## 1
Amino acid sequence: MIIFTSKVFAEGYAVNVQGVKQTGMGHVGTALNMDASSLQWNPGALATLDQKFSLSMGGFATFLKTEFNGPAGMEETDNPTGTPFYLYGTFKASDRLAFGLGVYTPFGNTVDWGKEWSGKYLVQNIDLKGIYIQPTVSYQLTDWMSVGGGFLIVYGEEDLDRAVPLSALNIPADGAVNIAGSNIQYGYNLGVFLQPTEKLNIGISYRSQVDVELEYEDADVDFTMPDAVAPLFPDGRVAASLPLPASLNLGVAYQVNDKWLLSADVNFVKWDAYKSLNFDFETNTSTQVPISPTQTVEVPVLTDSKSTRNWDNSKTYRFGAQYTASEKLALRAGIYYDETPTNDKFYTPETPGADKIGISAGFSYMLSDKLSVDATILYVEGKERTGFDTNNNLGTEDNPVYFGGKYKNKGFLPGIGITYNF
């Protein structure tokens, strides 16, 4: 599973591609019960599936970039092609009881600015990963209401590279630092699925916050420094924490007729849990700096780092449609608007967020009465955003200079999957 971790930039550091069918409909899914993928979107819907067994799997390729227009002119990321994936399987033990297991990637972020770009002292490359394993149970309480819940086993990983200025130590060259760590944490996913009429579905789901807590034994810091100052930057251990925020999802789906299915979701994400990005180095260092021919002063060199984020809670509005063209072919299209949680005052190129619009299309083709191939493509574009990171003063105390400029995000995400029901 670690080999196939997601490498994708999304709003905040969420990855909104946990199903090819749902992505084709603008990421709606809370009120849909198409197949085993409901395990992630709304665990309550599993018990309403008609099939005894359902298997859904797939993945995406992500082609995304961010452009930055600042004092050095136009610069852009060279992000690797990401591969977020999902795998869901469900089993109906009785007419009302269902079990399932899913593996999916709702969080992840890879941004590669290169070694020598103008913001290299803030970030050169960052890679965040979150893989969720979810055993699930669902039960149909009445003919029109079912509930479900899943236990989350979350593998979280963080890897950060950036340059280190050494001019204050009278060293003309830059150093470099890599901070990397991983850990396993736990959470839960709950859902309620309502079918008040034959044509109307209503869904409510909640996924809990999971804090990826990296203790000293979980994360390493590795410095690359000139020999003259290498003792001041010892390799060792570091502690850090990153929240994977909670989300509340509300959805409605309406089967207009035999051909048309319409659905809409509103997603509330509790990003205000991301207050700051802190690194607590196990070893801190200092050095003596002369201030006169006879006096020196002790100056800290390697100290703990705290960078304010103060993100806001955000909402995403999604709408999608499915048209059943024939017994073998279903066509889909959707659109969504994704609010950014990022703060103008503490805006950083490691997560260069912006309000985004996504437009998607897709289809499913039945290869047999049990097996379908599913495909989609999503185009995402963010509004141009001007941001300044006041955490990082690149000037002097008397003449502060904060790193900032204009950011623009866009990209394509094609996806393909299969669904097998029997």
## 2
Amino acid sequence: MLALLGLATIVVLLTAIMTNRMSPLVALIAVPIIAALAGGFGLETSKFIISGIRSIAPTAGMFVFAIIFFGVVTDAGMMDPIIDRILRVVGTKPARITVGTTLLALLIHLDGSGAVCFLITIPAMLPLYDRLGMDKRILALCVSMAAGVNFLPWTGPMIRSAAALKVPVTDIFNPLIAVQGVGLLFIFTVAFLLGKREERRLGLSSPHLAAGEARSVGAMGVDATPVGPAPRVLTPEQIKIRRPKLFWVNLILTAVIMAVMIEGAVDPVVMFMVGTVLALMINYPDVKMQKERVDAHAKAALMMASILLAAGVFTGIMTGTKMLTAMAQSAVAFVPPEMAQHVPFALGILSMPLSLLFDPDSYYFGMMPVIAEVYKTLGGDPIQIAQASVLGQMTVGFPVSPLTPATFLVVGLCGIGLGEHQKFSIPYLFAASVVMTVAAAVLGVIPF
């Protein structure tokens, strides 16, 4: 009963969001509450909600102050020279920009934190996409692919897999190195092709029509002379709040905050709180201007914080009612014994969609050990179940799953809707998972 109720809740939630029948805020709160009440949990539902909100609060706080911090240093002009330098390197070729976005996200995600990856990469690259009129869904996809395929031994799915099966994490990861290489090749190819598609859409495919080139017509004919990107035109209001003389101060402040956060010495929410205070005091010592800068970004911060807290309601209810656990236990009962040898390959194919149904703890600590034990009983190696799982479940799947706060970081920072992000990105992320699963079978990591 609980498993069916949980499945119905997930289906209704995803349908409501992806068809735009409900906003994510409304769906994440209303759907699970109705499900919990229908399941007979009554007033106990409020305890589940508080538990979920409590678990999500640090992430919500981090996001609020991250928006204000990046907003303040951007208002002060820190990003202007960086944008111009990147434009000089990648030019105005969308294919270079999409590949550069993917590479930057890949490098930043070396620490294993999807949230940090998105918080650093998206604000750095978004002005380029806005400036050229590129599709911001591609930005969301590129950072999602890079963070998803970059499943390293210290990332959440790897650590959970090793802990659940009580094996060294290297036993799971090392055979997947070549598979991960195939996945990286795939995502860079996708990024390049999407960039080329943007070039055609924006009319930049012709060398003489590409932005950054000019034609001068004289008596001798047409002379195509490359020039630099057009300088960014600021409004009088933007010029008023710019602090170009404080560029290096703001850059160093941002670098220190990022370094300490990535190193893990201090919680991200604390670092962004401190960073916001310092950025306001350094750039806008006048109290009135401080209030104006906070107000300028308060709407975006409040909107996304409310969605994150709503996500806490959803995960709190789904976990507290044991609906997720019941779903995990019921799912493994549908595997026919004669199909046992195909379980890893099938699981690899399904691993990415499973990110939409199970949070990482429920899957890796609830569902995966049961599947691994069944597979071991039938003569298989349980490690292959873990390897198949990490090829999609909360790796390439986590940036589109409503069960993870990182998904809302992506859409919030990119300024796109959750539904449009999921509809655009899921096919590519699923394809990446399938490509890696096939590669793993071909390379002998898991059986067909």
## 3
Amino acid sequence: MAENKSFSEFAPMPNAEGYFGEYGGSLIPEQLLTVMQDIDKAYQDIRQTPEFKEELQELYKYYVGRPSPLYFAKRLTEHCGGAKIYLKREDLNHTGAHKINHSLGEALLAKHMGKTRVIAETGAGQHGVAMATACSLVGIDCEIHMGEIDIAKEAPNVVKMKILGAKVVSVTRGTKTLKDAVDSAFEEYMKDTESTLYAIGSVVGPHPFPMMVRDFQQIIGEEARDQIQELEGRLPDALVACVGGGSNAMGLFTAFLNDTDVSIYGVEPAGKGLDTPDHAATLTLGKPGAVHGFKCYVLQDEQGEPLPVHSIASGLDYPGVGPQHSYLKDIGRVEYISATDDQCLDAFMILSRKEGIIPALESSHALAGAIRLAKEMKPEQVIVVNLSGRGDKDADYVAEKLGL
């Protein structure tokens, strides 16, 4: 068994400039840099106050329904014929995904900063719904930018955002998906940074957002660490989570980074195949570059411009990735693998039919990776999968895709 290291080895990351190794930072105009520094200072000050911490913890417990269960998927395990598979049930959170964890944190931060509006982007709509929910709860206006293609694909979430009182802006330029929604939201935010907070939906963007979203999400791994020791009497052999921007993955991984006997896997979208241009496997096939104000691995052309990307899961359809993931890849602490659209759909149906749990297409990538790994592992070994969201939003699309 490898020697465990002190958690303090990873805890100070990022550094004061927002870098995880060579990745991260704030590659943004001077005007926006000052705004981000103000947000960083406010976050560092406010997060330590008893009022903020108590309010957030109470909301996690009584509003979100935390801790989310860690569920032993017995029939899925039997189907795979290998390692035990446990599911961290973030799909049972209020609003149906892990996104509510950081959305509440960001909405409360906006309130404590005296902001009157939050602007956000969304891909699959889960961050949009969670942000609209959090803003409704704290009494702040909410504006969500979403690609036209994703609006058509994730119609149930669009309706929810509108019911919750959010203004939904359809982004019709470029690829009409997540990257362009981020661009659009940032441009609108720049018109009024005084009264508005831009609430990024993943561990991406300029500092302090990769740090801030990770901090709000790490409750996932902290709970899972305690739960698996209660259930199995030890830590798991492997962790698995899907990676687009990477917030649910960092939420699970952070509490285990220094447990070097725990293998960690991030599953990227291979789309129609890694040998085609229709994928979003940034860490697998990308190279270091910059996107949306920070340095990370990027799928890019010869001029360094982000390439169009594809995934059946709108929430993973992004040409960049969180800077901490980029760093963890380089040092070899996390292994990044991939799953195709077809493998994702297979995992979606397997979990639905074996366990009566309909997963989000994003989470189905993690399941596909876990199913593959479990078959290669021994029956006494244990895998924890972050089931980051439920598949209500995807049910009609999958039914049409599979002819159900």
